[in-house]
Amino acid sequence: MLHITLLILKILLFTVLILLGLAIVLLLLLLLVPFRYKVYADKHEKFVAKLKVSYMGFVLCLKADYNEDGLYYRLKTFGGTLMDNRHKMTPEEAREAEKRKQEKEAKKQAKKDLKETKKKEKQEIKEIRKQAKLARKNGMSVQNPETGEAEVKADKPEAASDVKKQDVAWSSEASSDKEKILHENIFGKGENSDTDNVSDKETAYGEENITGREKTSNEDDSLKADAIRFIKNDADLYDIACGIKKLIGGFIDKVAGKIYRIIANGIEKFRSLKDMKDSYMGFIRKENTRLALTVVKFNLISLLKTIGPKKLTGELVYGTGDPATTGEHLGLMSVAYPLYYDKIDVTPDFSKKILEGNLYAKGRIRLGKILVVAVRVMFNKNCRAALSDFKRISGRK
Predict the structure, then answer these.
(1) Would the N or C end of the chain have less CB density within 10 A of its end CB?
(2) Sheet with strand 80-84: strands edge to edge
(3) 190's torsion region: left (phi>0), alpha (psi -120 to 50) or beta?
(4) Cα distance between residue 265 and residue 261, in whole Å
(5) Residue whose C-alpha is closest to residue 364's, from 132, 2, 35, 47
(6) Where in the chain are the domains?
């Protein structure tokens, strides 16, 4: 009995060890064996892109294609298909996809036709305007291309100048007639009017104005006194006036309080932002932060070198239609010129707006390298100190 029990335990132990060994082997394969990828993209009249990712050849394979019909992908393992969206379309879905494709083509054709018609209309308008300019120079009657009305141009420039002179003479005569009528209304129609009579009239008119103003001011004071006396005598009206005064005062107090609170909150927010800015600047200036950034930079560069494409070729023809902006963009792209100078050929086009080219990339990614970089960064003492300082500043700790 004991022998059988020990045999069973022995078998279970060997089974666990075998499973553990298989798990370790699979983990090592997953970490050390790379995922290989290929990327191809082409953009001329249409945009086409292809992607292929494989792991240990036939163990895992993912293919994806993108074109004007849409995105198609297929995932296979050990030769068997796990996922595929190409063969899942029903006949109805296929008809709908075909309809969508035809609608897209019809829209594109309609846009092209509209552009062509607009260009033709602009050319016709330019030709009509040129003909109109020539006709005007020759002094002939022409038709306006925008309004469709006939316009007449004088044969000689002297006629136009005569018309302008005649208009100026008429305007001067009209202004002189207006001045005469105004003089007659003020001083009378007589040629030699008596100036003494005019001065007497002006003085009399001034005295009347002064007496009238005094009378009106006395009447206003009496009216104000009567209104105040009436309000004080009538208790209800006085209470209403006091209530209105209280309402207006309360409204003004509320508005002033709200404005004060808004200003106070704005000042507090500004102070908090200033304090936050100072704390973050102090965090950046710390020695631990600088050392942590150096570690992250070094490991990130090494990771990019590992997972980056081993083979990269391509061509790019680029233009914005404006020579100035094309030059600016080319200057920005030149920052990374050492990375692609012998791999991608960039040709700027300063005469028109264009974006064409192709790209082919091939490389591999190891999960083990990513894990090693992550462990280096996470267990570095400077990185951990910088992370704790950042959490403390941002209030997450």
Answers:
(1) N
(2) 80-84, 70-77, 60-67, 47-55, 35-43, 353-365, 309-320, 344-348
(3) beta
(4) 6
(5) 35
(6) 34-85, 88-118, 238-285, 286-396
